[in-house]
Design goal:
Blueprint (H helix, E strand, L loop, with lengths): L11 H4 L6 H18 L6 H7 L1 E5 L3 H21 L8 E5 L11 H11 L3
Length: 120
């Protein structure tokens, strides 16, 4: 595959996790688990936990939206069982340059995705 476009944003190449192959998915999963583990430590404040548990997805196209849905499921189904006291500190944000997510899809599908994503 092609290289991921960082759009010249400083720090993206150093700090972002890309989603190109299975090893990337494993890194993302491991990082999510590390964030929950760190946030669960007794010396971590609620504000720090909220920062650790804020997940940002860049890209509102099919891949970004599908990944966001899968991440949501992983957090609410698997991580919630292991860290029930942290689940209310979790937040997710989807960033995209386009005015709407799933811009190339039918309006009804875009509306459905937006409704589902704003539920939590």
């Amino acid at each position: 595959g092609a290289n991921s476009n960082t759009f010249g944003i400083p720090g993206v190449g150093d700090y972002a996790l890309f989603l190109k192959d299975i090893s990337d998915a494993r890194k993302i999963r491991q990082r999510v688990i590390e964030c929950f583990e760190h946030a669960s430590q007794p010396n971590v404040t609620k504000e720090e936990a909220a920062g650790l548990l804020h997940f940002a997805v860049v890209g509102g196209g099919p891949t970004g939206i599908e990944f966001s849905a899968e991440l949501h499921d992983f957090i609410t189904e698997d991580m919630a069982r292991l860290y029930p006291n942290l689940i209310n500190s979790v937040s997710m944000t989807v960033y995209d340059i386009a005015p709407q997510i799933l811009g190339s899809f039918d309006q009804s599908l875009r509306d459905y995705a937006i409704k589902k994503f704003t539920r939590k």
